[in-house]
Design goal:
Double Stranded RNA Binding Domain; 242 residues; 3 strands; three-stranded antiparallel β-sheet
């Protein structure tokens, strides 16, 4: 069974000074399931609330300065893409954040260390911990560093409404078949909100996963990730058979 790695290692991985408030970062990687099994350890949900606002402010400020000629609409589309749970989970995996998560036994047994919603929530909580331990400038710098490639990709790619159609076009052209989407998780986030996770199979292999508040949104994100994975994410450069 994997056990959580030490918080100082996470702080070093984030490029932060060693004298930050380690208790905040410990809370930022503590899932509610761990908190329930090991009271009184606080979980990350309060920090997640603040971190969501820190992330969106940092992103809005960055986009406003980096793309001075962009109107509101395109900047909003990029921001929405980059702060999605799926994108944040991708970034969290590059940090191996799952190895630092403190989870209850049930969450560990059911793959909680790689769950999209958990990774995204913990990353947002970490941004709140950076803001509270340091300042907004340090938090904004971390956002820019972690999300640099995702910002560039979101700014250069066409709108997400075309990703399923583009993936279908590519698979029919190269393989003579259609992609297959499978719902692999349906989590009730609140009494009224769901978080769907969808896998997309191409040529008999699972190529990507996506998450969203609806099956349609999750499928679009899965299609986007599959296009990147297969090298088919450009209309002008259709790539080749996988």
């Amino acid at each position: 069974m994997r056990t959580a790695l030490a918080i100082p290692a996470l702080i070093e991985r984030l490029g932060l000074p060693p004298d930050v408030d380690t208790a905040l970062f410990e809370q930022a990687v503590t899932h509610v399931s761990f908190s329930a099994e090991h009271p009184p350890h606080p979980h990350y949900e309060r920090l997640e609330f603040l971190g969501d606002a820190v992330l969106k402010f940092a992103m809005a400020d960055l986009l406003f300065g980096r793309f001075p000629d962009d109107p509101e609409g395109p900047m909003t589309q990029v921001l929405t893409r980059v702060v999605s749970d799926q994108t944040l989970a991708i970034v969290a995996r590059t940090l191996d954040l799952g190895s630092f998560l403190r989870l209850g036994a049930g969450e560990i047994a059911t793959g909680g260390r790689d769950r999209v919603g958990t990774l995204a929530s913990s990353l947002e909580a970490i941004l709140a911990a950076v803001y509270l331990s340091c300042d907004i400038d340090r938090a904004s710098s971390l956002v820019a560093r972690l999300l640099e490639s995702e910002i560039a990709r979101a700014h250069s790619e066409p709108g997400g409404e075309n990703f399923k159609a583009l993936l279908q076009e590519r698979t029919q052209h190269f393989l003579g078949q259609l992609p297959r989407y499978r719902v692999i998780a349906d989590t009730l986030v609140t009494p009224y909100e769901h978080l769907f996770e969808v896998a997309v199979d191409v040529d008999g292999l699972t190529r990507a996963r996506g998450a969203g508040p609806s099956k349609r949104a999750a499928e679009q994100e899965a299609a986007r990730q599959a296009l990147v994975e297969l090298g088919w994410n450009s209309h002008s450069n259709p790539g080749s058979r996988p």
